[in-house]
Amino acid sequence: MSSQTPHGPPFSAAALIVAAGRGTRAGGGLPKQYRDLGGKPVLARTISALDAHPAVRQIVVVRHADDSALFRGACPATRAALSDVAGGASRDASVRAGLSAVADDIDVVLIHDAARPLVSRAVIDGVMDALHSYDGAAPALAVTDALWRGDGTVTGTEDRNGLWRAQTPQGFHLDRIRAAHAHHPGGAADDVGVARAYGLSVAITQGDEANLKITTAGDFARAARFLEDQMDIRTGNGFDVHRFGEGDHVMLCGVAIPHERGLQGHSDADVGLHTVTDAIYGALAMGDIGTHFPPSDPQWKGAESHIFLTHAVDLAAEMGFTLTHADLTLICERPKIGPHAAPMRARLSDLLRIEAARVSVKATTTERLGFPGREEGIAALATVTLVKA
């Protein structure tokens, strides 16, 4: 196995995802790459995993000619440029179609199975590092089980020494693998076979058991178990207080509620939105509203608080997190929150970009105790959950 020390300038990379197969052995009625895995299509997870690598500048998905609508429905947002092309009658024909769509200024191409959605940064790094010393590189796992020959009964054994279980992505210098495919007559099992037939050197790099290829129905359950182990689930809390002052309404969760006094603050003093915003920043370990929007900066004086919340939601998405739940409690004697809870919940749902069923807005009093009980202001407490899978 290659253990080359990485050297030289970093490569620019394209990810070529082979997704033109039918996947009938997996069942389920849809091609396996479009079936659900933990709330997202398999292909969406595969695209996102490769897009997360900083060297990947372009992603080309080779799909079946009949799957354009399925592809559009499965596409996640990406940092890298994403495009799709129709595949051919065989795997190597599909790869050639994808290679023709890769930009000529790309250094290396990572050819990956759409049905391997759990590929890790470490596996990709291993391939990329080896390409400083070899024409190609591919991850694999050493065969550790005994190997038999047989047909119902054991008729012989095979030596497992030197045998490997191949994985993807299989990486190559773009010009060399293009030349290898142009020269190949077709029928290779994978791109390593095409490369070796052309005389290219291909390093074996470290594979990963989680980088399984979904082939049968049972593989979905295996992938789901690995996915659970990989999930990054975070909970954040927010707390905020604003005092009453002059005014004829209060802003709560983006809704103007008539009241004989208003809330005071540098912005529009929406204590509900401020609290949820701080909860998101807290889950990300990214400070609070004051960190990103200092009250000493005059441009935020009187600003609408949805600006702050939108920034926090965008930041979570950029870091790969999905907001799955928000729970807000407002603490005050007046105004009464109940009559306004539904529109507040709807507005919060819109700003958080999740369905209202995942948003809770409720209120309580302090039984006339403390500053909320004396109607000097409103406090709020929020909890949010973020998931990266």
TrEMBL record:
2-C-methyl-D-erythritol 2,4-cyclodiphosphate synthase domain segment(s): 233-386
Cofactor dependency: a divalent metal cation
Source species, domain of life: Bacteria
Chain positions of site Transition state stabilizer: R25, K32, H266, T365
Residues that, per the record, bind a divalent metal cation: D240, H242, H274
EC nos: 2.7.7.60, 4.6.1.12
Site, Positions MEP for the nucleophilic attack: residue positions: R160, K213
A biological-process GO annotation: isopentenyl diphosphate biosynthetic process, methylerythritol 4-phosphate pathway
Keywords from the named record: Isoprene biosynthesis, Lyase, Metal-binding, Multifunctional enzyme, Nucleotidyltransferase, Transferase
Pathway given in the UniProt record: Isoprenoid biosynthesis; isopentenyl diphosphate biosynthesis via DXP pathway; isopentenyl diphosphate from 1-deoxy-D-xylulose 5-phosphate: step 2/6; Isoprenoid biosynthesis; isopentenyl diphosphate biosynthesis via DXP pathway; isopentenyl diphosphate from 1-deoxy-D-xylulose 5-phosphate: step 4/6
InterPro entries xrefs: IspD, IspD/F, IspD/TarI, ISPD_synthase_CS, MECDP_synthase, MECDP_synthase_CS, MECDP_synthase_sf, Nucleotide-diphossugar_trans
Region annotation 2-C-methyl-D-erythritol 4-phosphate cytidylyltransferase: where it falls in the sequence: 1-233
UniProt-recorded name of the protein: Bifunctional enzyme IspD/IspF
Renumbered residue ranges of the record's region 2-C-methyl-D-erythritol 2,4-cyclodiphosphate synthase: 234-389
CDD domains reported in the protein's UniProt record: CDP-ME_synthetase, MECDP_synthase
Binding locations of 4-CDP-2-C-methyl-D-erythritol 2-phosphate: D240, V241, H242, H266, S267, D288, I289, G290, T364, T365, T366, E367, F371, R374
Gene that encodes it: ispDF
GO function term, MF aspect, one: 2-C-methyl-D-erythritol 2,4-cyclodiphosphate synthase activity
Reaction(s) the record says it catalyses: 4-CDP-2-C-methyl-D-erythritol 2-phosphate = 2-C-methyl-D-erythritol 2,4-cyclic diphosphate + CMP; 2-C-methyl-D-erythritol 4-phosphate + CTP + H(+) = 4-CDP-2-C-methyl-D-erythritol + diphosphate
Family annotation (Pfam families): IspD, YgbB
Native source species: Roseicyclus elongatus DSM 19469
Protein task: Bifunctional enzyme that catalyzes the formation of 4-diphosphocytidyl-2-C-methyl-D-erythritol from CTP and 2-C-methyl-D-erythritol 4-phosphate (MEP) (IspD), and catalyzes the conversion of 4-diphosphocytidyl-2-C-methyl-D-erythritol 2-phosphate (CDP-ME2P) to 2-C-methyl-D-erythritol 2,4-cyclodiphosphate (ME-CPP) with a corresponding release of cytidine 5-monophosphate (CMP) (IspF).
Family assignment from sequence similarity: In the N-terminal section; belongs to the IspD/TarI cytidylyltransferase family. IspD subfamily. Belongs to the IspF family.
Taxonomy of the source species: Bacteria, Pseudomonadati, Pseudomonadota, Alphaproteobacteria, Rhodobacterales
Record HAMAP family: IspD, IspDF, IspF
